Every structure is written in structure tokens, then in C-alpha cells.
Amino acid sequence: MGTPVRIDDEVYAAARRVGAVASRSAAQQVDYWVRIGRAVSMAEAGVRNRIDDAIAGRTPLAGLTAEERLLANAEIDAAIEQAAVSTDYADRLAAEGITTVVMDEAGHLVTRFPDGTSTPA
Asked: Based on the domain organization, do 72 and 96 belong to the same domain?
């Protein structure tokens, strides 16, 4: 017997449509997709390991296929973007005694001094 799970409404609707064509219920279609996904994931484990090794710098990016490099670069780009969004560089620079120009909550540029004071830029 299976275990009940919550499925996104869009996924459920798609499973109903596709399952009807293949004479499967929505639950059977979701189970089919999960089994395919699991098989693909297992087959791609070696690829995943090569990509992870390249991202971690354990192997050169040049050792990957073009498709693997594309995925590795996309993951590196996403990690850089996430770090840039989640890091407050103004605070870091202020701690080092550096004055910065930042955008305030109203969208105006202000000069921010290391002591925490600011003036319009």
C-alpha cells in the first residue's frame, strides 16, 4: 500500500490528462513519472558526481562534456548570484572603514559612512 502525499494542483491535472491517454489513473501516472525520474537520477549519478567534483574544484571543468559544463556553469552562476543577494557588502565594507554609496528603502542613493551615518549622495 502506498503513502499519501500532497501533489501540486498543476502536476495532478497534468497527470490526469497524460494518464488518461495512457489508460492510467492520475496516481498511476505520478507513480510512473516518479519511477522514470528515479531511474534517470540513478543513471545520472555518475554525471552528477563529475559535475559536483568540477564545481568543488576537484577536477577541471575542461574534463566535462559540453552539456555537463553548461550545467556546472549554471550552478556556479546560481551560487554566485545567491551569495551576492544574501551578502550585505555595505556592512562588510563599513567594518573595514570604507565609505559606500547604497540605495535606501525609498530607492534614493545615499552615502553610507563607516560610523553608520549617511547623507544623500
From this structure: no
63-90 b/e (C-beta count within 10 Å ≥ 16 → b): ebeeebeebbeeeeeeeeeeeeeeeeeb
Q: What is the pTM of this model?
A: 0.46
pLDDT tens, position by position, 102-119: 988 888 999 999 998 999
| For residues 56-80, average pLDDT | 93
Whether residue 16 is found in the same domain as residue 56: yes
**Which residues, in sequence order, are CB contacts of 100 under 8 Å at separation 6+?**
89, 90, 93, 94, 111, 112
Residues 95, 80: one domain? no
Cα–Cα dist 21/87, whole Å: 49
Per-residue pLDDT at 1: 64
